[in-house]
Specification:
9 helices, alpha/beta, disordered N terminus, 20% strand, six-stranded mixed β-sheet, four-stranded antiparallel β-sheet, Rossmann fold
Length: 350
Amino acid sequence: MNSIKWSRAVSGLALTFILGACSEVSFSPAPPKEGPSTLEDSTPDSGGLGSISGEILEAFNQRSVVRKVDLLVIVDNSLSMAEEQSRLGARIQSFLNHLGRVDWQLAVTTTDVSTGPYGLKGSLLTMAGTSSMILNKNVPNYEQVFLDTVVRSETLNCVGSCPSADEQALRAAIMAMDKRNTDNRGFFRDDADLGLLILSDEDEMSTGPALATKPEAVLDHFRNIWGDSKDLYTYGIITLPGDVNCLGAQGRDASYGTHVSDLSDLTGGLTGSICSEEYGETLGQIGKNLIKLLDSLRLKAAPDEDSIMMLFDPPQPDVRWSVYENKIIFDVPPKSGTKIRVAYDRKRRD
């Protein structure tokens, strides 16, 4: 059984172009193909939009600027999670391999937001064998450091006082953001997108009751802090909703990770099964998805997909792309230096 669930399918668009005198355009009618992307930056430019028309007109320049992302790993440290922590730690490189030219940094917190001895409440863990809470590619042997950090001693050796079994990954994410200028200073960069990677065998507050933090609350909290200056992407290794066999294999206390799955859908991410024998495939797909989202053009508004018109200067007829929310996501993006002009109508809400 395939353990990867893409959070939302996107289809290729048949595009119509209006040609100006002696102008040459390129178009991309074919459906997008899954795969890694290499675009490094697309910055809005004030240039004219030539002979395309729509309710909203935007222009971009393709420039070689290193993209930045802050990766917050939220790990379930309850007693049932020792094996899953080891699987995640052992295969994190399958994810990071796709971020070769991205300026990434990674931090870890847990799902424990209790007042008990292991309740981090969104504060970041110190990386094993270091004095820092932040991991990046410049840290020697960073794969081993991550493994040693994410495999929690309180999970392995609980005697008497144990981590909370009331897992709250979404609330932990909000609490971590709120500590951006205190306990977690230095991790949340204003010019870096934020990625959440959540590992848990249960839903928010174990079963997702009415009091549980809602996916929309996490996204709203993020937007209240950073507005539209950066983006949030969410990924999960969870008990996938509807996977009865996995739910049974995880034991009587497990529950479907509905809240994480819904937050992933809201932010364009994806989720994989916590029951996979090893997490390399899942983490590889997560890496591919993240790099595509980092390599996207972010429009001012969500477009009506059928209305989109694009011009590339110089022409590049092989460029393929898809639309998710207000993003144009390239399969193989235009060459650095390309001028991209986009015209579209705003998507009407039902």
